[in-house]
Amino acid sequence: MYKALIKTQVTQQGFSLIELMITVAIVGIIAAVAYPSYVQYVEKSRRADGMGALVSFAGAMERHFTVNSSYCGAGTSTTASCGTASSTGDPTIFPTEAPLDGSDKFYDLDISAVTATTFTITATPKNAQSGDSCGTLSLEHTGLRGKTGAGTSCWP
Hints:
By secondary structure, the protein is of the alpha+beta class. It is built from 1 helix and 5 strands. β4 (137-140) and β5 (145-147) form a beta hairpin.
């Protein structure tokens, strides 16, 4: 009967505050190293989508040339004679944003220069991609690839 009245002390096991703080510090260090790498990887994958869209856009320009014997008329501002500033603009033969699928768009696609036998098309970064170190990507009718930014390894 007296045994029921005697309480036994139970020891609890767990983490001390110091152990918890060390764990938080380690996670913080790992996150500080991993997050910039993750952001760079995402930026690079978006850039690859923009490049792929430019190459597909160049293919659409070539198909337009095959049908019309001229690159003229592939943009929205084609009221003046071909080769003038007003013959450029958004494409009418291809989507105006990249990536081509999905709802988030990271590049605006434009025809920056066009004549009957030459063209230059560009992909200008926007939204989350606007800080891309490669800047605006360009592709000419000869296959010459360009960029406006100082980034390296922009085109593979």
